Amino acid sequence: MSGIVHIMGIVNLTEDSFYAGSRTAAADALSRAQQMWADGATVVDLGACSTRPGAPQPSLEEEWARLEPALREIEGQCPAISIDTYRSEIVRRAYEVIGPFMVNDISAGQLDPQMLSTVGRLGLPYVAMHMRGTPETMQQFTQYKDLLEDIKAYFQDFELKAADAGIADWLLDPGFGFSKTLEQNWELLRRLEELQELGRPILVGVSRKSMLYKVLGITPEEAMPATQVVQYAALERGARWLRVHDVAEAARTVRLWSLLHQV
Questions:
Q1: What is the pTM assigned to this prediction?
Q2: pLDDT at residue 30 above 70?
Q3: Nearest CA to 7 among 260, 219, 234, 259?
Q4: What is the pLDDT of residue 198?
Q5: pLDDT confidence of 16, banded at 50, 70, 90?
Q6: What does each C-alpha distance from 18 to 10, 37, 143, 201, 220 come to in angstroms?
Q7: Which residues are catalytic?
Q8: What is the SS3 string spanning the chain?
Q9: Which residues, 6+ apart, have CB-to-CB distance to 87 below 8 Å?
Q10: If pLDDT is split at 50, 70 and 90, which confidence band does 28 have?
């Protein structure tokens, strides 16, 4: 059991993210980000386009109108940020404003054919997530002969595409809550360690998600204890990045896991 654990703090610049507590006005982005860094975040993830299953997708200009003021607010004052987007034009514009950052793409380049070449050309680190379909249709893509084998094949194919695009630094996100039933999310958690054979750092995003609050009959606002339990389980199965709404609580979870394993 080894490896430093990194925490990615979520800052949603939208009004329709499923967890209301994560919604942040652009003018408040810097103060929220600074609190996350103080609480132990490695990187703060700015998202200006809700990608919850079934969510209507804004136009590129709407996404940029939400993101640009936040970027200018934190420009030059941030240790490290990532941007949650599947649009290469957003990546290009953001790079012009703040320079290098991490790209967090729910589609692993599937929703924009220019994404991987743009990331490779700019030399940016990248998060590739497992998803089938689009944000509007992904709920229909839940039939798998073997879920983990599908995920492995997906990332083996992505690795070839990334190499062709010149992307060497990328994380693997198996996509909890995306194109998966509640039962499949729990199967993924049980078998998460199988993904270690792909040789990539594994990022897990389970914070306050429906796989927790629906099975417990609670709300996202009540799901913090459940989130910590599942984050700990993910660490036990090889995750080394946690994408979270609540950085201080995640840092405590990581601290206890580290003490147990003397990391």
A1: 0.93
A2: yes
A3: 234
A4: 98
A5: low
A6: 12, 23, 24, 26, 8
A7: 209, 243
A8: CCCCCEEEEEEECCCCCCCHHHECCHHHHHHHHHHHHHHCCCEEEEECCCCCCCCCCCCHHHHHHHHHHHHHHHCCCCCCEEEECCCHHHHHHHHHHHCCCEEEECCCCCCCCCHHHHHHHHCCCEEEECCCCCCCCHHHCCCCCCHHHHHHHHHHHHHHHHHHHCCCCEEEECCCCCCCCHHHHHHHHHCHHHHHHHCCCEEECCCCCHHHHHHHCCCHHHCHHHHHHHHHHHHHCCCCEEEECCHHHHHHHHHHHHHHHCC
A9: 49, 60, 63, 111, 112, 115
A10: confident
Whole-angstrom Cα distance, residue 21 to residue 12? Answer: 9
Token readout for 239 is: 């995750």
User: What Rg value do the Cα atoms of the chain yield, rounded?
Assistant: 17
Q: Say whether pLDDT at 15 is over 90.
A: no
